[in-house]
């Protein structure tokens, strides 16, 4: 799988030049040198499968023998007794298929060799200011020996690859979605007034780990009452009360691939009349969008349709007043819904992938089978929202599903997380 990806990337390079990819650095958690749990850079993992820090991948399609080169940390038994085994140069070749592998100490010397005669360099700056500086120094110091005529951002061709998922990738994403959906079903069994938001988070994340998820896809959001109107609220420390809605946006990462689910549930097990009315507007927008997914349309088509549905619903409820088309033109919906409806999903929860055609930046990417993305309409009405009846204040509703585009439409891989009012209330009746 990783070899095929490297080959495909080198074909996109036109079989010329070299490409350099960096692993994710380790991040220090506190002053005593403890570090956050390591998570590999998604691009680096996509091409190598290697989950170690302090590693560099070089792809050199013009080299007769060494087309895939890894620079890694040397073996160090003393250090490995604290932080775990390192693959070393031997493991880089035997376990990860590198044509050649070197210690990081040899990087300067070997990189000069690979850069000789290189006309085109693919590299994405910004992930490591240290390496950016070192590469600039190398190119400047040895410009009489090698000076690429063009330097391209490696992210562009790679994002075009990552947006089209292989069958193996789709299976892993389905598993991440399945585990995450089960966690929501477990939440409905225990959710009740006087629980703290962090207790809901604990229930979710226990299920994630129980089924082999090494980490969350992102920081869990559990926001009740007015906290649900904060888009990326993550304190999760409020004690919930009867009559609250709780917005839950959480999902697991499984074998490096993430799901991304949001559900909004009544803490006491029953929607009030006002909550039900708003919820049905959002649910209709979601279900309409899912039913509309098919090859050949764009994410922007789905977004515009969702705006139509949400604004129409708000007009019917008296939250907005006026003609729907004019309200959309004037962006009157922005205080209640201020983001794009869809995003790509995969190795990153906001996965790398183009939204516009390369070279045709005014044309949206057309959906095709194998693409995976989220659909997440919502409405958010904080307390004190001007011009809105106070009965709607402190209500935030978002409902989010993940879909795979198929030849006939789409597969909703998060449908098992209850979202209809009937299913939610039935699951909470006890």
Automatic annotation (TrEMBL):
Any one Gene Ontology molecular-function term assigned to this protein's record: manganese ion binding
Keyword Hydrolase: yes
The EC number(s) this enzyme carries: 3.4.11.9
SMART domains: AMP_N (SM01011)
GO cellular component: cytosol
Cofactor field: Mn(2+)
Keyword field: Hydrolase, Manganese, Metal-binding
Keyword Translocase set for record: no
InterPro entries with a match to the protein in the record: Aminopep_P_N (IPR007865), Creatin/AminoP/Spt16_N (IPR029149), Creatinase/aminopeptidase-like (IPR036005), Pept_M24 (IPR000994), X-Pro_dipept-like (IPR052433)
Swiss-Prot/TrEMBL catalytic activity: Release of any N-terminal amino acid, including proline, that is linked to proline, even from a dipeptide or tripeptide
GO biological process, one term: proteolysis
Domain Aminopeptidase P N-terminal: 1-132
UniProt superkingdom: Bacteria
PANTHER family to which the protein is assigned, alphabetical: XAA-PRO AMINOPEPTIDASE 3 (PTHR43226)
Similarity-based family: Belongs to the peptidase M24B family.
The protein's name in its UniProt record: Xaa-Pro aminopeptidase
Species name: Ktedonosporobacter rubrisoli
């Amino acid at each position: 799988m990783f070899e095929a990806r490297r080959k495909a990337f080198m074909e996109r390079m036109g079989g010329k030049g070299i490409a350099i990819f960096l692993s994710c650095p380790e991040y220090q958690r506190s002053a005593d040198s403890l570090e956050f749990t390591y998570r590999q850079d998604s691009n680096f993992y996509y091409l190598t499968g290697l989950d170690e820090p302090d590693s560099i991948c070089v792809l050199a399609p013009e080299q007769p023998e060494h087309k895939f080169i890894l620079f890694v940390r040397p073996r160090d038994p003393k250090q490995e007794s604290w932080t775990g085994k390192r693959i070393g140069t031997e493991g880089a070749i035997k376990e990860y298929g590198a044509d050649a592998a070197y210690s990081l100490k040899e990087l300067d010397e070997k990189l000069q060799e690979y850069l000789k005669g290189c006309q085109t360099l693919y590299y994405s700056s910004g992930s490591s200011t240290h390496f950016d500086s070192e590469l600039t120094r190398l190119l400047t110091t040895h410009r009489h020996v090698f000076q690429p005529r063009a330097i391209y951002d490696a992210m562009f061709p790679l994002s075009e690859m990552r947006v089209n998922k292989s069958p193996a990738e789709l299976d892993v994403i389905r598993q991440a979605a399945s585990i995450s959906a089960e966690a929501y079903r477990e939440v409905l069994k225990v959710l009740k007034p006087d629980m703290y938001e962090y207790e809901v988070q604990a229930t979710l994340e226990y299920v994630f780990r129980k089924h082999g998820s090494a980490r969350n896809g992102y920081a869990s959001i559990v926001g009740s009452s007015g906290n649900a109107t904060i888009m990326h609220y993550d304190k999760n420390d409020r004690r919930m009360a009867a009559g609250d809605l709780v917005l839950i946006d959480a999902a697991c990462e499984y074998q490096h691939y993430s799901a991304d689910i949001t559900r909004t549930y009544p803490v006491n097990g029953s929607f009030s009349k006002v909550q039900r009315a708003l919820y049905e507007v959002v649910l209709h927008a979601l279900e309409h969008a899912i039913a509309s997914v098919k090859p050949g349309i764009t994410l922007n088509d789905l977004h515009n349709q969702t705006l139509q549905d949400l604004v129409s619903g708000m007009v019917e409820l008296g939250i907005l007043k006026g003609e729907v088309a004019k309200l959309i033109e004037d962006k009157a919906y922005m205080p209640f819904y201020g983001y794009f409806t869809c995003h790509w999903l995969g190795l990153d929860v906001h996965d790398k992938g183009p939204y516009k055609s390369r070279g045709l930046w005014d044309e949206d990417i057309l959906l095709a089978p194998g693409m995976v993305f989220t659909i997440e309409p919502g409405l958010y009405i904080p307390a004190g929202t001007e011009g809105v009846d106070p009965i709607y204040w402190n209500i935030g509703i978002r409902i989010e599903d993940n879909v795979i585009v198929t030849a006939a439409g789409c597969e909703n891989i998060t449908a098992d997380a209850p979202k209809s009012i009937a299913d939610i209330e039935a699951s909470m009746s006890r």
